[in-house]
Design goal:
The complex is a heterodimer of chains A (254) and B (843). Helix content of chain A is 37%, strand content 25%. Chain A is α/β, with parallel strands linked by helices. Chain A has a single domain, classed as Rossmann fold. In chain A, strands 6-7-8-3-9-10 form a 6-stranded mixed sheet, sandwiched between helices. A 4-stranded antiparallel sheet of chain A has the order 2-1-4-5, covered by helices on one side. In chain A, strand 1 and strand 2 (29-40) form a beta hairpin. Chain A starts with 10 loop residues before the first strand and ends with a helix. Chain B is an alpha+beta fold. In chain B, helix 1 crosses helix 10 and helix 21 runs parallel beside helix 24 (806-833). The two termini of chain B are 25 Å apart. Classes of the chains: A alpha/beta (254), B alpha+beta (843).
Chain lengths: 254, 843
Amino acid sequence: MPYPTAAPAVAAARATGLSKVYGHGETQVRALDSVSVEFRRGEFTAIMGPSGSGKSTLMHCMAGLDTVSAGSAQIGDAELASLGDRELTRLRRDRIGFIFQAFNLLPTLTALENITLPLDIAGRKADQQWLDMVVRTVGLSGRLAHRPSQLSGGQQQRVAVARALAGRPEIIFADEPTGNLDSRSGAELLGFLQESVRALTQTVVMVTHDPVAASYADRVIFLADGRIVDEMREPTADAVLDRMKRFDAKGRTS
Amino acid sequence: MLRTAVRNLLAHKTRLMMTALAVLLGTAFVSGTLVFSDTVGGAFRNKTAKSLDDVAVSVTPGRPGTDTKEGVLDSRVVDRIRALPGVTSVRPSVDGATTVADRNGDPAGTEWGSSGANYVPGKDGKDSRYPLTSGRGPAGADEVALDSKTAAKTGAKLGGTVRLAVDGPVMTKKLVGIVETDNPRVSAGGSLALFDTATAQKLFGKPGQFGELVVSATQGTDQEALTRKVKDALPEGFGAQSGKQLAAEQAKEIDRETSSIRKTLLVFAGISLFVGVFIIANTFTMLIAQRSREIALLRAVGASRRQVVRSVLIEAGLLGLVSSAVGFVLGLGIAVGLRPLLSALGGDLPDGPLVVEPASVLAALAVGLVVTVVAAWLPSRKAARIAPVEALVAVDQAPSQRSLVVRNVIGAVLTGLGVAAMLYVTTLRDSGGMSIAMAGSALTLAGVIVLAPLLSRPFVALFGKITARFTGVSGKLARENALRNPRRTAATASALMIGLTLITGLTVAAVSANQGVDRMGQQDLTADYKVSSNSYLGLSPEVAKTLASRPDVAAAVPLRMTGFQSGGEPTGIQTGDLAALDKITDLRVTSGSLAAVRGKDAVAVSQPYADKHGLKVGSTLPMSFYGGGGAKPRVAAVFAKNDVLVEVVGAPALVDPLLDRVRDDAVYLKAAPGQADKLPAEIKKTLGNNPLIKVESQDDLRRESAGSIDSILYLMYGLLGMAVVIAVIGVVNTLAMSVFERTREIGMLRAIGLARTGVKQMIRLESVMIAMFGAVLGVGVGIFLAWSGGHLLRSSFPEYQMVVPWGRIAIFLLLALAVGVLAAVWPARRASKLNMLESIGSQ
């Protein structure tokens, strides 16, 4: 591995005074307003908040998919704002894993080829033992030669999870990973994510608006209007739902 | 539905840009051709009409259109016509080929444009037909006037000397005047020399005789009536035509010539349009696939299949109309630009206004419209098949892979028929199989186009294996993308394949023909040089005599050709010093004896001719000559086919008495030992640096024939260039559209760490694979068609043997590679610049 794993206490990613502004003048939108947060190694964090709260923006900025207007975003010791496109691409390739809402698999490649795609791009050899473990964890052993069109939605998303894990990244970002799945496949997938954090000591940051999904996390961060307004440890679906209801009530009264 | 079509068109402006460009270029080619040929035809017609302005009646010896010369046009005839009422003047003219030497002693004009005529001073001492710009008209035997362009080429000033020749020795005359002329032959690269009438008669005809009388009449005279009167006033053996008749005949001739140019150009425009069809069909297939959800929605809310189809066709029609309208304007530009281009290349075209016939406008618009709608028709059927329920299905639908079985069967049948036809052609012994060969070629090409999706798999897989080794994941992704939709890859490659098939086929044929000509010229000619004339009149026999008397010439053998008919079949007989033939050519007599071919009662014939007509030594060959007269010589010898000689050879005594003037076509020279190198310069000097004399070595002769084949080949390359350009646009189009289709994938690849350069390389490699696939198919089919079609030449051109110019074909493949890289530039840039976040989120 080109990047040595840091000590567990160190944050896998950190935002300090992170702001993101879209547009200019009157049409200016402040999507993130001086957000400071840490994502610790080996922790499963869920980011929640009503639509437009900035939760996706926070994830995009932390993952090096979007630029930062002010403040700092760090992956390990790398300051994202100081990196050019080439270095950001390398960083995403080698140190970050992604899971998208719409699976985003390549229809021309088999499940296995999709899983090893980030490694292929990097020109790295897969760590066969690790790969076997990942494939077993997400339960895809019998389906590796299938193309995405021959897999169910849940299976496709599990391929996406395996792809994110395959390169053993420092941190995995998941954007509404259960958004396109029925509740059973969703529950299965969240189980795999939880398992990968516990058994494989991965770090996962997941954006979701589903309280049940959030309840699988170790920690939930609540965003509203571009700020972190609350945090919950050891969440349960009910507790999260209650917290979310307060946003709705506030949204309705204001 | 019209509104949907218009909205769709506007919404996909950039996506349709490349398709519009393809239609536009095709229609520009068509309309450029139409307008150009109309314009040139119009200009020529104006010009000839002007030069016939003051011609009421033209009188010639013999009936017009025949070679018989019964009547004699002399001053008595002139006087008789001049006496007719209504006639204002009669201009007796004599003309013939005259070659003027330029500064370097070379001919100042082209072979067929080097003309000479008599200067006919009117009452004011000037000839109105040739207005003087300086000096005066020629009045004595050693005076000459030239047209201004030729005068400039000779470099002579008024009072200086000009060297010229008609068909014999060089003459030196004093330049006394410079004139203007509107003779189309002269303005198209020829030269004009004017003599006084007596000199011209001596040079071109018999003293006291004229070649043509131009009768002018008072204003308002009925030309037809006057023509009849002129005819009545003359005895048999003269022809008279009115000026109007002549103008009509020339106009017909011009129309025939421009229409043949037009047809040739339209064939190539048609090829370009055909290539465009693939691009249009591809575009609409992709558009419909991308829009299937929209179409399903339309169907779900109640649109009928027919309405969906109509909406697609209306969209195609609008695209076709707009593109061809722009294409027409571009075509006008082509028509305007072609004239100076052709003039620069040596073809002197008369000036004239741009002629835009309404028919050309309509034709261009109709062609663009029809081609686009027809090309969009199949894709529109696909739109109709989209079920309403597809509006509701989830994302990430795999591209539906409809089975290729039916298509492959059709393709195999077509290819099989085509190949069978071409193999049959290879068994044919004569050139009668032309139409079978054409049909076979078309079938083979069509079959391979239909089979292309099947063929693309192994090709792309193999090519991808090679590139993946060097480029890693981008190469692998490119291969998968090219394989993803074989129909699309195949259609894009087919467009390029058509151009390359034609280019390869023509190249192979031309290179093989050139080498065949080489062999042909080399085989039998043993002479060192061929001396011939730059004028179509031939050489005076004096030339051969002068050359034979030189000590450095071992043999000088003149040959002259005379046309005759035998049993209604036109043939030619060559006559000359038969005893000396073996000095200049490797002549093998198979039966009889050449020594017996003497006098006017014996000829020798070639073996193929004897076989064809059942002749052997002792048979009689009835001959009837064009100038009248006939002969019934005996076959005294049969010789093996020979490149230097024609099919019938005889002694001068057989033909010479029938000729007005005896002229040699060529004199073949064998140099005395060790004198060969110096000979050409010595000959030129001996013959007074005569501009008529052309001395060619064996190498020159070979190069001459090769040169004409090569220039035709380069012209073809140029004309096929448009089809290749359109095919390249097609590759750009396919790539741009598939980048659009795969926006989400590209966004994901970027997100998980594929660098911009990797994205670019992926697109570029896909492009190169498509281009190389088209090129390899085209080269393969082209070589096959050239090989099989070449067999048709076996009887008429036995020296033809197929040669594949691998070097040139390697260049074609390299160019295809470059095309692939170039076509990807813009789509790859777009792909690498995509906004990652928007791409991932897009549907």
